Here is the input.
Amino acid sequence: MAYQTLTVEIDDYVALIRLNRPEALNALNSQLLSELGNALAEADQNEKVRCIVLTGSEKAFAAGADIKEMAEKSFVEVYNDDLFGAEIDRITATRKPIIAAVSGYALGGGCELAMACDFIICADNAKFGQPEINLGVIAGIGGTQRLTRFVGKSKSMEMHLTGRFMDATEAERAGLVSRVVPATKLIPEAVATARKITEKSLVAVMAAKEAVNRAYETTMREGILFERRTFQALFATEDQKEGMAAFLEKREPQFRDR
Ligand code: CO8
Here is the structure.
């Protein structure tokens, strides 16, 4: 499908999705979020995709929800439309892994979108923030919940209350991102990381994603039980037999996703 607010390139089982509204620093409007939901759903269905990298431009991953589009809306309008609620749910419903490759600004909805991905690799020029407070609102697509779980209450509260930005070094120290790389290496590093994931059994990859997400969505007890059952269930796959046999035979596994 052709998109107006993003581009999709598929190469060697990695889908690279680039947000592309340079005139607004990739601000998230309804069209972009709807197209992103469609692109991710297509990637989920496409056998030629086993991992997704979501990125923006060098200057901005995304500078937030589109303020121009939102400014004049009433409560009833945003409530009736469930503004961006359904769109973000479609993004988090993606079953294949999504790596956010963040360069420049990831602010407001942009920071929330990055956090809705499975992990974040960022460039050394990245800036994360939840500056909605400066607009007289608060985060609306998960920021108060995800940032708090990722970096703890104190740092999250400060960011939400003051709107200050976190740079790449602080983001890595706080556990918001998995890795910081030089800006020029961001896409090659993110794609290389995605490619490593494409070599695994897709069944095991999707199961691992589901299990890790349980750590954020349920209690420890339920999460441990989910992990245990999922681990046990993977013994029903051919890939488990192949993976363990390959190790014992000192060769590379040939996974077949079944
Ligand atoms: N929305 C719309 N347009 C934007 C946005 C945005 N969030 N951010 C930047 N732009 C536009 C600017 O208006 C400007 O357009 P123009 O050239 O037509 O004036 C263009 O992008 C370039 O921006 P700047 O000239 O401002 O570039 P600077 O390099 O000077 O500054 C900043 C970059 C610091 C990123 C600055 O643009 C900025 O502060 N942007 C706004 C950041 C922000 O407040 N984000 C939070 C938005 S609210 C939000 O995300 C809510 C999420 C929850 C949604 C759920 C809904 C219920």
Q: What stands out?
A: The chain has a mean pLDDT of 97.
